[in-house]
Amino acid sequence: MNRYPLWKYVTVAIALVFGFIYTLPNFFGESPAVQVSSAKVTLKVDATTLARVEEVLQAAGIGHDGIQLDNVGVKARFKDTDTQLKAKDAIERAFNPDSSDPQYVIALNLLTASPQWLTSLNALPMYLGLDLRGGVHFLLQVDMPGALQKRLDSTAADLRSLLRDKNIRHAGINREGDRIVIKFRDAETRERASKTLADNSNDLTLAEAGQGDDLRLLATLKPEAEKKIAEFAIKQNINTLHNRINELGVAEPVIQQQGADRIVVQLPGVQDTAKAKDILGRTATLEIRMVDDSPGALEAGLAGNIPFGTELYTERGGSPLLVKKQVVLTGDRLTDAQPGFDGQTNEPAVHLTLDSAGARIFKDITRDNVGKRMAILLIEKGKGEVVTAPVIRTEIGGGRVQISGRMTTSEANDVALLLRAGSLAAPMDIVEERTIGPSLGKENIERGFNATLWGFVAIAVFMIAYYQVVGLVSVIALATNLLLLVALLSLLQATLTLPGIAAIALTLGMAIDANVLINERIREELRNGMPPQAALSEGYERAFGTILDSNITTLIAGLALLIFGSGPVRGFAVVHCLGILTSIFSAVVVSRAMINLIYGRQKKLTKIAIGNVWKPGTATADGQK
Fold first, then answer.
1. What is d(CA 509, CA 455) in angstroms, rounded to the nearest whole number?
2. What does the alpha-carbon distance between residue 485 and residue 587 come to, in Å, rounded to a whole number?
3. SS3 state of residue 41
4. How many CA atoms lie within 13 A of 554 on its CB side?
5. Are strands 285-291 and 320-330 parallel, antiparallel or unpaired?
6. Is 320 in a helix, a strand, or coil?
7. Pairing of strands 127-128, 495-496
8. What are phi and psi of 606, to 5 degrees?
């Protein structure tokens, strides 16, 4: 009656082993580390960088606990923070001799100290949120008027190209405030232009103005178009910030929209506010310009006499390049960039896809500049770098562009990644910044741990005193619930915050409630004169429906918090929902497995240690028949 088949015991044993393994990494703590990543979008961190870091540390006489290379950069571990700071200074001097133009980002970091065998099983500790680990918090204000102006400038260029394709003459196209003004010399041409623009530009509202020789067509963005631009600006900026913050190696950064035009950025574990602000400001803008290959121009530029309207850059490989200042196309028109191969030469290449307006502009550029070189630049903080400068072989239409020549497969992948990264759709300003020190985070962890620990102890004392052996089983099941919950959070690499700790404490109280229902049901059956073995079976069977109903209703509330909440509320909801699932398993399956092991094989069971059982009109103890 009270015996589990072997597979159920095996399931419980596997669950306990799983919980132990994936909970274990949380007890090893973290090791101080120094991370080296690229400060230039065209500068790659590879095995050569790792070897160089090792040489610098060896020359400075600084020992380390291991150096690794991953997709973020090179990371070196150290025994303590003093050694970490010395190593950072040594690496900074070696890698960035010119502090005004740093080539690499040298950042302090924390890495898990778990043994290698645990890491190989993907058993990693939970991420700690800003309130537990310390770090920096920024609130960024997106310049929506700036985004609209940028879009209007781009639209003005599109309209100029469109009217030229349709052979419609105009007297000038300019942006004036929040509108585009197109001038004409006669009403008939203005009418043709108005009809053409109405057919090809769904986002614009057109209005006629002026008289005589001063005929104008005023184009303004529709409200729905402005809303779409604002939404795109927020999404694009969030994506770009994600790309940049990855260089810091921050575990689980929080980057999310707040309100209509603000972005919250939280970087747990980062204490250098200046470095974080520098990373946030390092957002690249893609530009396409023509190369000045006129005879003697490059030589004059190298001699210090740079021709008017040009700038001197260095191409990949170190070759000097004279680039015109006029921007013919920006990254806003790029929709995709993928690595591939040239269909004719089978050389590595990058395949670009432009939107319709960008395709028209690019077709005009390539048609008028066959045989000339075109430079693709990434501009960061006013400084530009030439990603590639291919020769235009023929007119390119259709919006699909191929960049090839003097690239390896790895370089083609890197260039495609850089071009896909894009640029900020609108400028941003930091309107709030806050630093939470690691000492405060440590204090929060200690308080949260103590609250959970003493809550568990209080529950354990009550259950054992009131229900005796069955109460002890309930306490073991509760400990199993906590073990499995922490293991799931670690496996999912969830971020634990103070609200998450509160959810763990709440889960303990809710989980023990299921055992109370089971225990009281067993006692009720014993009071009614049922044999102990039958009382155990009926207690679990009849309490299960009540336990399931109560947990489902609570789970619905948790899912609502998860779906509609944000930030700390979602963190609470994640722990809350997982805790409900683990509590059902531990309270019903694990506790009954232990009860079956204790009482299930006793054929002549006469008494259950479940505290005093009071029968109507008499007082008997310990479940006597």
1. 8
2. 13
3. coil
4. 23
5. antiparallel
6. strand
7. parallel
8. -115, -15
Q: How far apart are CA 19 and CA 21, in angstroms?
A: 6
Tokens coding 222: 């529709």
Across-strand partners of 354?
334
Write out pLDDT tens, residues 533-569.
888 888 888 888 889 998 899 899 999 988 887 767 8
Report whether 435 contacts 159 (CB < 8 A).
no
Q: Which residue has the tokens 């994600």?
A: 242
Extract the tokens encoding 26. Answer: 């949380």
DSSP for residue 13: H
240 phi and psi angles, rounded to 5 deg: -65, -40
DSSP string for 410-451: HHHHHHHHHHHH---SS-EEEEEEEEE-HHHHHHHHHHHHHH
User: What's at 571, amino acid-wise?
Assistant: G
Q: Which residue from 223, 234, 270 is spatially nearest to 141, judged by alpha carbons?
A: 234
Q: What is the pLDDT of residues 196-227, one digit of tens each?
A: 888 887 888 888 888 777 788 888 888 888 88
Spatial contact of 280 and 244, defined as CB atoms under 8 Å apart = yes
| Residue in the block written with tokens 């509160």 | 502
Most confident of 120-129, 231-240, 473-482, 495-504: 473-482
Question: Do 180 and 155 contact (CB within 8 A), yes or no?
Answer: yes
Question: What residues contact 517, with CB distance under 8 A and at least 6 apart?
Answer: 543, 546, 547
Q: In what order do the strands lie in the sheet with 334-341?
A: 334-341, 348-354, 400-404
Burial tier of 238 (Cβ tally within 10 Å: 0-12, 13-18, 19+): middle
Placement of tokens 């985004």 in the chain: 147
Residue 62 C-alpha from the chain's centroid:
34
d(CA 244, CA 240): 6
Buried-exposed string 327-365: b where 16+ CB fall within 10 A, e elsewhere? ebbbbbbbeebebeeeeeeeebbbbbbbeebbbbbbbbb
C-alpha triplet 186, 192, 193: angle, nearest 5°: 90
Instruction: Say what the alpha-carbon torsion angle 23, 25, 26, 31 is, to the nearest 10 degrees.
Output: 180
